[in-house]
């Protein structure tokens, strides 16, 4: 009650009605009780991992400096930002001239400015507009040593109008800002002046301790529950609020209930305890439509994938600059990048998937993405990903006819009923190992298609005649044992990688390959029926040519302008001579002739390979 005791001396003017004055003071007291919610003095001992978190944050404050210190406490919802700030506030508030713990519970900036001034000055201060409110905060607090906590800041404007600059406050003032959005610190007034503390998830030991406190009567798991306890702790990955809610929901329940909730990813608990609102709803709804879609795609299709691959694929999705949008999601604590891969926290992952399935109460009520073995056939479906589970995925080929919005199709181990007569022309990524048809559908000509992977397929030829795939950059039909010839590539101008290895019946490479100015990789390894090229090779930007273990008997003639070719693999071929034009490959770094048993001599022109670093002849 020390802080409330400091209200002694609140002014009652001669012109004030006594009842009004009493009401005003009562409101001030209630306001303080609402905002402070004082934490017991032994908080550091009672809160799991708090001592480490508290001191890590406090170490960012330069006690030697006379300038006001700003610390941004950043993390996903429910991770403990407010608790850390509140512990610091209650420990040090009496060391300041004025202090205020302001919860940002409204978007009304004038009201927030009024609340801040009221809590600090213990006076009813009239605020007319945002600019006047900002000026009043500067005027009243510029010479004062203050401790201010702004809890739950969501926008740059809120920070700008509540604590616009360190020079608003007196020497040795401290302003703590809790937020899920580190973007708010990117303002000229705060350049190099805000110390950022990223709240970490609990350690495994801390997570286990917190979960057990709420799941078991004495805080210690029964031996029969130990393996489930560890499995839950590992899955929730140190999120304090989720550990508390899930632990409490399982308190006193049978082992069957524990196993059921674990199997369901605690979906019932997340909804019943409204963890969705606490952790994700606000952050999700503040995103623009492109970023919302990007988040759902990451959750449903790309979690754990390499960032470079994800950006490469999503650049074709019309979301704008994908790298910038991805950085925005990282800044808002909705995803992370670890060791070059997308890493989403379990809670955000399963909640985002639930949004995509239409299971959570957002504006999205329609299932738009499938990544599990589910019945399909809806015109709203944008993606299907098979997670490679042991159970074979069964599909009706006819169902693809209704999936006109399909953008991602990645499936394997599929049992297909019927022939594939239709695929969406919205497809960006088509990855179907074991594709069962001899051709792609005649109507399929997606201008957006970025990657075409049909490994181990039954295709005889990808398509007949000329087809426009203007954004197609990679074709991989490795292991397609019935493929006889490649199609006409005349209208595939951006193809960069063509992978045909282990196509045992491949006999003919269409000469249009020579007009592929962006082709950098041609892989024909183990094409054992490929005997010769009936034309010169002149892919001017080709960097790697792999003809290993093919049936080539003569090395194809090379054009002079193939200046970018750096790797040539001819190992294991039946060639008995190298064409003298090989001397034109003056930028070649590696020439692999291992196990070329019929090759008895090298042409004198090989001496012109002035850049050659590695020549492999053994075997």
Automatic annotation (TrEMBL):
Instruction: Give the matching Pfam families.
Output: NB-ARC, WHD_ROQ1
Share an example GO biological-process annotation for this protein. defense response
- What gene is this protein translated from? LOC111012100
Q: Which residues form the NB-ARC domain?
A: 64-217
Tell me the organism: Momordica charantia (Bitter gourd)
Q: Which lineage is the organism of this entry classified under, starting from the top rank?
A: Eukaryota, Viridiplantae, Streptophyta, Embryophyta, Tracheophyta
| Protein name as catalogued | TMV resistance protein N-like
Q: Where is the Disease resistance protein Roq1-like winged-helix domain?
A: 292-355
* One example GO MF annotation: ADP binding
List UniProt keywords, sorted A-Z: Leucine-rich repeat, Repeat
Q: Which residues form a coiled coil?
A: none
Please name the Gene3D superfamilies in this protein's record: Helical domain of apoptotic protease-activating factors, P-loop containing nucleotide triphosphate hydrolases, Ribonuclease Inhibitor
Supply the PANTHER family for this chain: DISEASE RESISTANCE PROTEIN CHL1 (PTHR11017:SF559), LEUCINE-RICH REPEAT-CONTAINING PROTEIN (PTHR11017)
């Amino acid at each position: 009650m020390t802080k409330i005791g400091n209200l002694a001396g609140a002014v009652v003017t001669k012109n004030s009605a006594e009842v009004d004055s009493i009401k005003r003071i009562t409101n001030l007291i209630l306001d303080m009780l609402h905002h402070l919610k004082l934490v017991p003095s032994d908080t550091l001992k009672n809160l799991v991992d708090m001592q480490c978190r508290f001191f890590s944050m406090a170490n960012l404050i330069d006690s030697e400096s006379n300038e006001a210190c700003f610390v941004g406490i950043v993390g996903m919802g429910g991770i403990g930002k407010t608790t850390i700030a509140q512990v610091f506030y209650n420990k040090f508030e009496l060391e300041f001239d004025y202090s205020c713990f302001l919860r940002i519970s409204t978007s009304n900036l004038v009201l927030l400015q009024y609340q801040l001034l009221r809590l600090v000055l213990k006076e009813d201060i009239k605020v007319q507009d945002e600019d006047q409110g900002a000026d009043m905060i500067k005027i009243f607090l510029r010479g004062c040593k203050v401790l201010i906590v702004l809890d739950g800041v969501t926008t740059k404007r809120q920070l700008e109008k509540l604590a616009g600059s360190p020079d608003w406050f007196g020497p040795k003032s401290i302003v703590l800002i809790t937020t899920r959005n580190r973007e708010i610190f990117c303002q000229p007034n705060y350049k190099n002046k805000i110390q950022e503390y990223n709240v970490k998830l609990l350690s495994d030991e801390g997570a286990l301790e917190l979960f057990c406190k709420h799941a078991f009567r004495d805080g210690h798991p029964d031996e029969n529950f130990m393996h489930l306890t560890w499995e839950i702790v590992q899955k929730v990955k140190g999120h304090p609020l989720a550990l508390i809610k899930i632990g409490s929901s399982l308190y006193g329940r049978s082992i069957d209930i524990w196993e059921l909730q674990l199997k369901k990813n605690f979906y019932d608990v997340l909804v019943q305890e409204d963890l969705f609102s606490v952790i994700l709803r606000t952050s999700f709804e503040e995103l623009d439509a492109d970023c919302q879609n990007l988040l759902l795609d990451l959750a449903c299709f790309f979690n754990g994938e390499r960032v470079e691959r994800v950006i490469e694929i999503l650049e074709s999705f019309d979301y704008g600059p994908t790298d910038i949008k991805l950085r925005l999601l990282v800044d808002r604590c909705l995803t992370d990048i670890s060791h070059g891969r997308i890493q989403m926290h379990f809670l955000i992952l399963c909640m985002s998937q639930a949004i995509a399935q239409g299971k959570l109460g957002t504006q999205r009520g329609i299932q738009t993405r499938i990544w599990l073995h589910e019945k399909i056939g809806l015109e709203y479906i944008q993606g299907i990903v098979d997670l490679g589970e042991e159970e074979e995925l069964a599909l009706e080929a006819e169902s693809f006819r209704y999936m006109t919005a399909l953008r991602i199709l990645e499936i394997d181990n599929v049992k297909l009923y019927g022939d594939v007569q239709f695929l969406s022309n919205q497809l960006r990524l088509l990855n179907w190992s074991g594709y069962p048809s001899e051709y792609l559908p005649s109507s399929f000509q997606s201008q957006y298609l970025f990657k075409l992977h049909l490994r181990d397929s039954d295709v005889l030829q990808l398509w007949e005649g000329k087809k426009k795939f203007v954004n197609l950059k990679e074709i991989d039909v490795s292991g397609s044992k019935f493929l006889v010839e490649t199609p006409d590539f005349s209208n595939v101008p951006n193809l960069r990688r063509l992978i045909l290895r282990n196509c045992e019946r491949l006999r003919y490479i269409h000469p249009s390959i020579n007009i592929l100015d962006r082709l950098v990789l041609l892989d024909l390894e183990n094409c054992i029926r490929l005997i010769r090229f009936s034309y010169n090779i002149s892919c001017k930007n080709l960097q790697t040519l792999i003809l290993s273990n093919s049936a080539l008997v003569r090395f194809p003639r090379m054009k002079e302008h193939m200046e970018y070719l750096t790797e040539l693999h001819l190992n294991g071929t039946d060639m008995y001579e190298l064409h003298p034009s090989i001397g034109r490959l003056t930028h070649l770094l590696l020439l692999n002739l291992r196990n070329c048993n019929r090759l008895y001599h090298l042409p004198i022109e090989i001496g012109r390979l002035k850049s050659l670093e590695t020549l492999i002849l053994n075997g």
